[in-house]
Recover the amino acids of this structure.
């Protein structure tokens, strides 16, 4: 069963009066959540699929949980979605109902436990290489992945998970809401992330923080709040690579070394640093229990990450062609580039489509150069891309947000060449006021065009 604290009588009795959800608009105990979610389940039972406007509210969580109790798959909708993308998502998924705000309810009907392979969520990808695809996540994948994370992070019902992540994505909804509810713990959602709000929560009963690199970058600039973050049992970062410089800054400020993990919508979480593992900058840990990971390429060199295991999605909705193309001999091809270290730790260097630069006969990972540039005192943010070059094939171009003084290309090139290798130095520099990012803080490199 996916949510035993809401469906198993013995477990439910044990946590009935414990806080399950705490949002800026209120909070619910497990007893209250179960009652409200069952009413929703009765109202949704028998429907093929529903869409939910995934605003950071109690009502969103109640509706999603109610749908899961009814065995009805949910399409979470980004509240900031554009008209064209919204039209595509609704036409592609064809939900029988779109819930915005107050959850539906209905007369009591039987609610049998759905099959483990039954769809739980249909989450749409960001659509960076075409129209967004609906990733069908079965109940089996959610249960297996959340349990593997619990083992990796020593995650229990005693934990209060603090975050301000959006609820239309795997990170915020699956890990940040369903994860604590599966453990019988507490979700403390901030509404939206601020360093001050997170510090207040962690200074209280918060034990674990789920964040993205942008959030930790903001913390690094607010040392007055470091003490509260240092009290957390775990500081977890995901959805994008955490720059090594930020990792070290957080460690110096809080005494905590951030736990990094790696995954994607189609796979949920693939690897993570264990709670008692080596939290080294730039590494996203080892494969979770039950998950197999390989890097296709020469040992110790950059290759594509492939994965198989119980956390994988079932299919892309209405896209059998795309589903077939995503697999190679039963292994899901992530499109991410990485180096697999001898001890099994994975080091992500970027996306195959945007972060592998072939220059002068070398294969260069953009992420490695970005981490090196972030160690320069005049670099606040950076994105590295490849541009066509008649001589080299591609040249390394650095898009930089300066930290006060504007650095020169020569300074940055020398800096990178000294830390890495001469062929990895940037050949061009573009100074900008900001980098384009999505809701989870990932840089939209396809928008970087000179």
């Amino acid at each position: 069963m996916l949510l035993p604290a809401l469906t198993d009588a013995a477990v439910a009795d044990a946590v009935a009066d414990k806080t399950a959800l705490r949002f800026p608009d209120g909070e619910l105990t497990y007893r209250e959540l179960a009652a409200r979610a069952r009413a929703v389940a009765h109202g949704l039972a028998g429907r093929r699929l529903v869409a939910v406007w995934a605003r950071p509210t109690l009502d969103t969580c109640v509706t999603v949980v109610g749908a899961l109790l009814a065995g009805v798959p949910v399409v979470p909708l980004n509240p900031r979605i554009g008209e064209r993308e919204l039209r595509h998502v609704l036409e592609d998924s064809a939900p029988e109902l779109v819930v915005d705000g107050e959850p539906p309810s209905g007369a009591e009907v039987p609610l049998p436990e759905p099959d483990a392979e039954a769809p739980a969520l249909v989450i749409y990808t960001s659509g960076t290489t075409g129209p967004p695809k609906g990733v069908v996540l079965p109940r089996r994948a959610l249960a297996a992945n959340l349990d593997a994370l619990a083992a990796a992070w020593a995650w229990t019902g005693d934990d209060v998970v603090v975050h301000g992540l959006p609820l239309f994505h795997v990170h915020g909804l699956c890990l940040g809401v369903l994860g604590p509810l599966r453990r019988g713990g507490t979700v403390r959602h901030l509404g939206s992330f601020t360093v001050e709000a997170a510090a207040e929560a962690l200074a209280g009963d918060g034990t674990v923080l789920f964040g993205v690199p942008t959030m930790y970058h903001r913390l690094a600039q607010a040392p007055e709040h470091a003490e509260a973050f240092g009290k957390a049992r775990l500081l977890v970062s995901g959805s994008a690579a955490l720059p090594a410089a930020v990792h070290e800054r957080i460690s110096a400020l809080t005494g905590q070394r951030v736990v990094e993990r790696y995954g994607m919508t189609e796979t949920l979480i693939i690897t993570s640093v264990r709670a008692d593992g080596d939290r080294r900058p730039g590494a996203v840990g080892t494969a979770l229990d039950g998950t197999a990971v390989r890097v296709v390429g020469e040992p110790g060199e950059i290759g594509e990450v492939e994965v198989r295991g119980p956390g994988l999605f079932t299919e892309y909705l209405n896209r059998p062609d795309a589903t077939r193309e995503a697999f190679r001999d039963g292994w899901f091809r992530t499109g991410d580039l990485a180096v697999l270290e001898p001890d099994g730790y994975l080091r992500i260097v970027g996306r195959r489509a945007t972060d592998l630069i072939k220059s002068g006969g070398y294969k260069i990972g953009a992420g490695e150069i970005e981490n090196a540039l972030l160690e320069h005192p005049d670099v606040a943010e950076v994105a590295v891309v490849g541009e066509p070059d008649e001589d080299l094939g591609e040249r390394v171009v650095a898009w930089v947000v300066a930290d006060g003084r504007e650095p020169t290309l020569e300074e940055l090139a020398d800096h990178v060449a000294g830390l890495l290798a001469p062929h990895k130095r940037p050949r061009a520099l573009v100074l900008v006021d900001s980098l384009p990012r999505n809701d989870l803080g990932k840089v939209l490199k396809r928008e970087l065009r000179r």
Summary: The chain has 14 helices and 25 strands.
